[in-house]
């Protein structure tokens, strides 16, 4: 078994050369070395283990080290690992596109490949803006988004996120986006949308949203009827609607996609995270033939000029096809329903808890707010205390300020869920005694 000195060696070597994401290294100078994963568990150098309650940033929907996914990537690597996707194609990309479209509403007919969630959002925005530009309509340039939105960390995606600590240093460099009230206040949100659209009806090109659950904004949940009303208003005023399903896609909300709860459907959908089961980096943006056809022209300037070196990477496509194989199994949906029921039962048992407030659920996503004092939000001082507490308990939870959430792989067992619930209750009890 590896010894403590080799563990410390990894920690020190990492600290000497690596800059980690979303990390304040003055406060968190060291990172935990992980050597392998199995199911819901991550294992360290000395076989210490951590229950991955957040699917490693919401991507490992089938768990870690899944042999079927690994086998399919291996098989593909023996055939073709990478090929330029301009002027060439390959079977894994074609099959994946066909299969994705078969699970989306029928008006989605084209798939554009990219490499991550932020880029899939950027592609969606570029599609929407250039759709009008290609028709000679240069007035439609404005975009509407939701308060507390988060759509990624590239400059375009940052522009779509409400002003926050995520984008504050760059705020004066971002393009203008108009934000309407948080949708868990339906009346104010819908009134905001109406006001903007009636004041400048010819200037808005798109409305972008995270359907039903706003993730990084604090797992804020809202009703499908509210989003239906907003999409209806947008369509009545000629806007294209972009659904950011990067987190909510592939069963997270209890259906294939969050849009499946809606009567009104978006025009563009952005997918990533669970798309490949967490095995490879990939994003896709899907749209209708009508939107695609607006780019067809003998004028090359009407082309959608967007790509990256690894567009439709065959290994990532193989991983995504394998993940869809697992998603299409009855067993996966039985597990999703089991997790939903478990969350619901625990949430019901904690409704009057003095510390665990606003317990909310959408599908397999469970979230709550730690109510201690008046402060709230992403920079809440409890964040670091909670993170370290659960790590010491062998549970990976990554709080959003004073908001805790569970977004586990679908293979998680009921006894593993119970470990998380019990740790939440124990932490809340410590807070009660302290505060």
Q: What is the terminal separation in angstroms?
A: 42 Å
Record the strand order, biggest sheet.
4-12-11-10-7-5-6
How many alpha or pi helices? 13
Main beta sheet: 7 strands, mixed
Radius of gyration: 22 Å
Helical residue percent? 25-40%
Say how many strands there are: 16
* Beta-strand fraction estimate: 15-25%
**Molecular shape:** globular
Uncertain residue ranges: none
Mean pLDDT: 96
H-E string: HEEEHHHEHEHEHEEEHEEEHHHEEHEEH
Q: What is the SS-derived class?
A: alpha/beta
Keywords: Aminotransferase, Biotin biosynthesis, Cytoplasm, Pyridoxal phosphate, S-adenosyl-L-methionine, Transferase
Family: Belongs to the class-III pyridoxal-phosphate-dependent aminotransferase family. BioA subfamily.
Modified residues (N6-(pyridoxal phosphate)lysine): 273
GO molecular function: adenosylmethionine-8-amino-7-oxononanoate transaminase activity
Question: How would you portray this structure in words?
Answer:
The structure is a single chain. The protein has 435 residues and is α/β, with parallel strands linked by helices. The chain contains 13 helices and 16 strands. Strands 4-12-11-10-7-5-6 form a 7-stranded mixed β-sheet, with helices on both faces. A 4-stranded mixed β-sheet has the order 1-2-3-15. It has a 3-stranded antiparallel β-sheet with strand order 13-14-16, covered by helices on one side. Helix 4 runs parallel beside helix 10 and helix 7 packs parallel to helix 8. The longest helix has 21 residues. It starts with a helix and ends with a helix. It catalyses: (8S)-8-amino-7-oxononanoate + S-adenosyl-L-methionine = S-adenosyl-4-methylsulfanyl-2-oxobutanoate + (7R,8S)-7,8-diammoniononanoate. Catalyzes the transfer of the alpha-amino group from S-adenosyl-L-methionine (SAM) to 7-keto-8-aminopelargonic acid (KAPA) to form 7,8-diaminopelargonic acid (DAPA). It is the only aminotransferase known to utilize SAM as an amino donor. It is an enzyme of class 2 (transferase).
């Amino acid at each position: 078994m590896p010894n403590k000195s080799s563990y410390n060696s990894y920690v020190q070597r990492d600290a000497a050369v690596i800059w980690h994401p979303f990390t304040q290294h003055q406060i968190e100078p060291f990172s935990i070395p992980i050597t392998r994963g199995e199911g819901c568990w991550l294992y360290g150098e000395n076989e210490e283990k951590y229950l991955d309650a957040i699917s490693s940033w919401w991507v490992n929907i089938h768990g870690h080290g899944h042999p079927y996914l690994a086998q399919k990537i291996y098989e593909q690597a023996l055939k073709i690992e990478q090929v330029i996707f301009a002027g060439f194609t390959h079977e894994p990309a074609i099959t994946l596109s066909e299969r994705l479209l078969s699970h989306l509403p029928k008006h989605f007919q084209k798939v554009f490949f990219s490499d991550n969630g932020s880029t899939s959002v950027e592609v969606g925005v570029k599609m929407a803006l250039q759709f009008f530009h290609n028709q000679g309509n240069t007035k439609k340039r404005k975009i509407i988004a939701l308060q507390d939105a988060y759509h990624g960390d590239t400059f375009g995606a940052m522009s779509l996120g409400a002003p926050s600590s995520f984008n504050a240093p760059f705020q004066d460099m971002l393009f203008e986006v108009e934000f309407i009230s948080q949708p868990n206040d339906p009346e104010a949100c819908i009134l905001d949308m109406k006001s903007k659209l009636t004041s400048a009806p010819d200037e808005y090109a798109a409305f972008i949203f995270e359907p039903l659950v706003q993730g990084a904004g604090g797992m804020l949940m809202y009703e499908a009827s509210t989003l239906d009303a907003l999409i209806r208003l947008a369509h009545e005023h000629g806007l294209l609607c972009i659904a950011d399903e990067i987190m909510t896609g592939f069963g997270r909300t209890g259906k294939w996609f969050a849009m499946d709860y809606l009567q009104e459907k978006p025009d563009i959908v952005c997918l990533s995270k669970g798309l490949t089961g967490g095995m490879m980096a990939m994003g896709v943006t899907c749209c209708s033939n009508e939107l695609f056809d607006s780019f067809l022209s003998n004028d090359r300037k009407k082309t959608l000029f967007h790509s990256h070196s690894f567009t439709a990477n065959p290994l990532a496509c193989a991983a995504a096809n394998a993940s869809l194989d697992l998603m299409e199994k009855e067993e996966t949906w039985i597990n999703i329903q089991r997790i939903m029921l478990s969350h619901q039962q625990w949430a019901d048992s904690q409704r009057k808890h003095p510390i665990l407030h606003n317990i909310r659920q959408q599908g397999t996503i469970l979230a709550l707010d730690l109510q201690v004092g008046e402060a709230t939000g992403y920079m809440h001082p409890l964040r670091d205390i909670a993170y370290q507490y659960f790590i010491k308990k062998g549970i990976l939870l990554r709080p959003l300020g004073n908001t805790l959430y569970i977004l586990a792989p679908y293979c998680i067992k009921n006894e593993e869920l119970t470990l998380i619930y019990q740790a939440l209750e124990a932490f809340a009890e410590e807070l009660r005694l302290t505060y």
